[in-house]
Amino acid sequence: MAHVLRGSAAVVGIGLTEFGELPGRNHLEVLAEASHYALADAGLGMQDVDGLFVSSMGRVFHPLHAAEYLGIQPSHIDGTNVGGSSFVNCVQSAAMAIKTGVCNVALIAYGSTSRSNRKAKFREGNPNAGAFHASEYNPRNPIISYAFAAARHMHEYGTTRENLAQVAVSTREWAMKNPRAEMRDPLSIDDVMGARMICDPLTLFDCCLVSDAGAAIVMVSAERAKDFPQKPAYLLGIGSATTHDQIAQMPDLTVTPASQSGPRAFAMAGLSPGDIDVAEFYDAFTINTILFLEDLGFCKKGEGGAFVGDGNIGPGGTLPVNTNGGGLSCVHPGMYGMFVTIEAVEQLRGNCGERQIEGANIALANGNGGVLSSQVTAIYGTESTL
């Protein structure tokens, strides 16, 4: 018997602001702009929203601020924060709220001015908050945690610096096909390996961008989805998992919670990794992509580096990954989870131009939160997959 959530809700609207640096703007303005774009894409207005799902780093009462700024009084509101995976988690919460009749039109929205805030010497929250065991050493999180994972994977499985660099090169190749992407200049393995070392073994190009940007999606029930102007992307399966908060408590530095969230999503969808046409990963650092390829079942544990090294995830590869250019080359405002969903939806709509994957009917979006702490995996499909 099919899971009650399988195919019960769909994304019918998406909205993106400009990327890069948005001077003179604050996070709520950017959030609101993206929200209006998403609602317009769905043929709706702000007055139609009765469910609001938002998240933000380091802001107390953010859902209340957002609802007030948008001028709405929703019947359901959710501000769960599990790091960058929050917005894929919001998809699960929205689907449950829609299925149970708690709300009818769910708006999931995000805005951040991380790049502008850096120039203003302002931070959204403490990057070391919660890491009480390590705080006396004043580690620079999150990069030191991802460097630990990369170094361990290299030690355990023979993954090379060239393998990590190939992740950055492949995503840049996709970004060069995306007019919205921030970084579109050619990038070579030598460029990545010769760049400034940030935290051994990760150099500058192994690290995600820091951007100002906003993004939003609109979800409704599957029964209503066909009535909207855009091609719906139906939620086929979704799963979440959490194993730790701080990197020192990660059970195995080479195994992420995606090893649990992925099977749950595939089970709900009634699908397997071989059914996926295109995959969008939260690539805050190059090691993420290698770990998620393994943990989501696209290759065996320890073979992610070689899988990437063979050119499988870039244009023309066997598994297109991060077709917008990812957090490494397209955009990364601090919580990238919204953008994996939007690119998955765009691919299923067939609207991606030069980077479009021909015949894409099933897309996977994997959100990552904390320091490989929280993973939420969502699988979307076109009407033909219901």
Compile the SSE list and pairings.
Blueprint: E1 9-16, H1 27-42, E2 51-54, H2 62-70, E3 76-78, H3 86-99, E4 106-113, H4 114-119, H5 143-157, H6 161-175, H7 189-194, E5 197-199, E6 202-203, E7 212-221, H8 222-225, E8 233-242, H9 258-269, E9 278-281, H10 286-295, H11 304-309, H12 326-330, H13 337-349, E10 362-369, E11 374-381
Parallel strand pairs: 2-3, 2-4, 9-10
Antiparallel strand pairs: 1-7, 1-8, 4-7, 5-6, 8-11, 10-11
Helix pairs in contact: 1-2, 6-10
Mind explaining what this structure looks like?
By secondary structure, the protein is an alpha/beta fold. Helix content is 34%, strand content 18%. The protein has 13 helices and 11 strands. The strands form 2 sheets. It has a 9-stranded mixed sheet with strand order 3-2-4-7-1-8-11-10-9, with helices on both faces. A two-stranded antiparallel sheet has the order 5-6. Helix 2 links the parallel strand 2 and strand 3. The protein is globular.
Short description:
The protein is an alpha/beta fold.
Topology, number of strands: 11
Strand order, largest beta sheet:
3-2-4-7-1-8-11-10-9
Could you say which structural class the secondary elements and strand pairing correspond to? alpha/beta
The rounded Rg comes to 19 Å
Percent of residues in β-strands? 15-25%
| Tally of individual helices | 13
Biggest sheet record: 9 strands, mixed
Distance between the termini: 14 Å
Give the SSE string. EHEHEHEHHHHEEEHEHEHHHHEE
